[in-house]
Amino acid sequence: IDETTNRDWAMQQLDYAMGSVGHSYMVGFGVDPPERPHHRSSSCPDPPASCTDGWAETQPGPNPQVIYGGMVGGPDLDDGYVDDRMDYMHNELACDYNAALTGALSKMIMLHSDNK
């Protein structure tokens, strides 16, 4: 195993997720982050307004509630991405997306602290 090559690749992936391609895939962080993730609670208006089925589908702007740190599904097969809450394939928030990022960040922090 070439540790340097693998570390460089992991850092490249983290940079990609946070915006090296011109936009981030993490809500609320990085370069031009997603504002319209496919997430019911995030899409609902501020209380006491009602959040009925279909309300978010008609809203053109960002989701009223920001889920800071949530990772969206990411790019399509051609590396394209559109911040569209109705495109659940690329804009769904899911814990497993965050899990991989958390693991990679933890390792980078560990490596950084070992080099001090």
UniProtKB/TrEMBL annotation:
Keyword set, alphabetical order: Carbohydrate metabolism, Cellulose degradation, Glycosidase, Hydrolase, Polysaccharide degradation
One BP annotation, GO: cellulose catabolic process
Family of this protein: Belongs to the glycosyl hydrolase 9 (cellulase E) family.
Family matches, as PANTHER family: ENDO-1,4-BETA-GLUCANASE
Record-annotated active site: D83, E92
Reaction(s) catalysed (UniProt annotation): Endohydrolysis of (1->4)-beta-D-glucosidic linkages in cellulose, lichenin and cereal beta-D-glucans
Domain Glycoside hydrolase family residue range list: 5-105
Region described as Disordered: 32-63
Pfam family, one: Glyco_hydro_9
Name recorded for this polypeptide: Endoglucanase
Top class in the EC scheme: hydrolase
MF terms (GO), sorted A to Z: cellulase activity
Native source species: Hirondellea gigas
